[in-house]
Amino acid sequence: MELTLLGTGAPGGLPLPDCPCAACATALGPAARAATALLVDGVLLLDLTPGAAFAAARAGHSLGGVRQVLLSHPHDGPAVEVPAGLPQPGRVADGRELALLTGHRVRTVALDAPGSGYEVTGPDGERLLYLPPGGAPAGLGEGNGAGQGHGARAPYEMVVADVLGRPDGLARLRAAGAVGPTTDVIAVHIGHEAPPGPELTRRLAAAGARAVPDGSTLVIGAYEDVPDVPRRTLVLGGARSGKSVEAERRLEAFPEVLYVATGGTRNGDTEWARRVSVHRERRPGSWRTTETCDLVPLLAEDGPPLLVDCLSLWLTHVMDEVKAWDDDEWAGGGERELRRRVVELAEAVRATRRTVVAVSNEVGSGIVPATASGRRYRDELGRLNTLFAAECEHVLLVVAGQALALRG
What we know:
alpha/beta, seven-stranded mixed beta sheet, 19 strands, 27% helix
């Protein structure tokens, strides 16, 4: 099957008329996006949007061969004029399947929001899943794929969905086996909430997805452009820089993440309890949490992705254990034991087969601590960050909520 994306934007498009925001101001030329509409093999149009005929012509296609027009979500505003020669738009009823004379089959997929998801199977058996804005699949069974009950157990060749708005939908598809390593995940319904420029590409790549310009034609089943999800990522940043949010964002499209909290509960510290509560509330419900500083065994085990937050608290724990704050203990073997533990952790990161995202503080750019113990901690954290980063495919520095790629 061949798919042409006549538009890849949110229902209102990008930029929005008269919107002064930074995303709209920079959405010029190839970065501008019309409302999402998909043309499959020139015979099936998914979502009729204003200017669809002109968009098809610009992409080198015609709507003259379209045999079916399906709508996926309620359209606000005035009705869209149906170009001459096109059939009237409609929907496939829930649980029903539509067969086209061209050999294409369309089946609805249940959603957790208003609208219809469509599974399109081509004459040669390739499968495409298209989800509307704000929609995620509902009722998926693990290992059964989105075609549960219909014998469709293999991953889709392509998924076209609201990746930025509903990353949990992609996580559900992965948990059900409907998205695999070779599934081409295309992000659409992109609006002005999306980050502009290279940041959009980087954020989608972390979820195993990509965005393409309007007018792109893709061959379903061609996998060479599927981004590789990095196995190891280190996210650095100062206090309240947004580093934890960035780390969580990199795994929100994956199911069954194990969140490793190294800070403990600190009984009696109400301010710390509030911090922990905020972190817990913004995590997806499918994630599990463990409170431990014993990271090496976790890295050696097989299992779901790990999110370690954070290495700086792990270092504090280890420095407490080796009595690093006592000068005599430090000189008498504490320093040597701490370095051994740090190297052991770095070696575990190198050998791990799990996906790992770790958070750490960047404290070397601030004021020099006034105490010897403060300077000791600053120096050791710098060494830990350096060794950990050396084993990671991606290293990011978060400043004022903006992620700067240092590696990868």
